[in-house]
Design goal:
alpha+beta, 13-stranded mixed sheet, Aminopeptidase, 2 domains
């Protein structure tokens, strides 16, 4: 027997009252720069006619992460969100300063994701973290944080969840990205703040900073819609194209660093399987004086992040590998994801 949905009530976000059925664009004042130029954080709110949970989707924690911003913009343009139950709060650009400067950090070179829950009278980054945590994050029942790899690093679409958060792990399966990494949340991160509040939270990390990636954007939009359907915020509909498989949960991940400086030569691609002892890269001396340095893998794993910069320094990260308990099954499933990717990015 279907029960009649409960009508929604007015909600207050950033001192603005939003009535059921309303859709608002807000601009929250941010800490000023020394130039006294005002900065504002864009906030998009869709408050459904009927009651339901509040989902927060945030992008550009590190300002140059344009893939997440595009995911949110495409999500908000979808006709389906007009049938929303509950509330969708979307922040297309959290780190406005970083976006303006095509950088990852805030004034003073501070990483925002090390400053939560922030301080009202702290540094510029601590104040921004405090404003976001108290005014926006506090109203959400769940948060999806959209990130990318740093500049010159491309990432296979994957999700980070805290290893102790069973609810977020279950939602990560619903999101259905190729890989899920279970990690321990670091002190000062938004993930740790969410864990302390017992609030479901996941990071979707895909693509590279300052570059659009059609595959990453597609996975991101579809993943958020799947979460919203799971939370009964949107009506269930059969997808036009089924995902190729389930998310693969990695038991751990590791970075491979260059042991010398020079020009890195590699043919490895994202999602590629490597065995222990396989050659990952050959680093050559740009002046042709030293012998080539061959960098081999110490693990059997899947490449989920790679450095696209040919010029590398000694100690610089080159590849990130995800390690799986059932490696051959992971390889088989990721091949299906690769076929799906080729369908997504093929010229139309």
């Amino acid at each position: 027997m279907n029960t009649k949905p409960t009508k929604n009530k007015p909600s207050k976000i950033c001192n603005e009252t939003i009535h059921p059925g309303e859709r608002l664009s807000l601009a929250m004042p941010l800490p000023q720069l020394f130039s006294c130029a005002p900065l504002y954080m864009p906030i998009k709110v869709i408050h459904g006619k009927y009651a339901g949970p509040t989902l927060l989707v945030v992008a550009a924690m590190h300002g140059n992460e344009v893939n997440g911003t595009e995911i949110i913009n495409r999500l908000l343009e979808m006709p389906l969100v007009a049938k929303l139950k509950g509330t969708l709060v979307a922040v297309p650009v959290l780190n406005v300063y970083g976006l303006m400067n095509r950088a990852r950090t805030l004034p003073g070179g501070i990483n925002l994701d090390q400053c939560f829950p922030g301080k009202k009278h702290g540094s510029n980054a601590a104040r921004l973290a405090h404003i976001f945590a108290s005014e926006i994050f506090s109203v959400a029942d769940m948060c999806i944080d959209l990130q990318t790899g740093p500049l010159n690093y491309s990432n296979l679409p994957h999700i980070f969840v805290d290893e102790s958060d069973s609810e977020s792990k279950a939602l990560a399966k619903t999101f259905n990205a190729p890989v899920v990494l279970e990690v321990k949340s670091k002190s000062g991160s938004l993930a740790r703040h969410a864990l302390d509040l017992k609030k479901p939270y996941m990071i979707y990390e895909a693509g590279e900073a300052m570059r659009f990636d059609r595959y990453s954007i597609k996975i991101g939009v579809d993943g958020i819609l799947s979460i919203m359907k799971k939370m009964d915020m949107l009506p269930e509909r059969s997808p036009k194209k089924e995902r190729p498989g389930k998310s693969l949960f990695a038991k751990t991940n590791t970075w491979v660093h260059s042991v010398t400086s020079g020009i890195s030569h590699t043919k490895l691609k994202l999602g590629e399987y490597v065995e222990k002892g396989d050659v990952l890269s050959v680093v050559k001396d740009p002046f042709g004086v030293k012998e080539d340095t061959v960098i081999k893998s110490h693990y059997e794993g899947i490449v989920i992040s790679k450095n696209n910069q040919p010029l590398v320094y000694e100690g610089e990260a080159l590849f990130e590998l995800a390690l799986f308990s059932e490696m051959q099954q992971a390889v088989s499933d990721l091949e299906k994801w690769q076929d799906y990717k080729e369908e997504i990015v093929k010229p139309t």
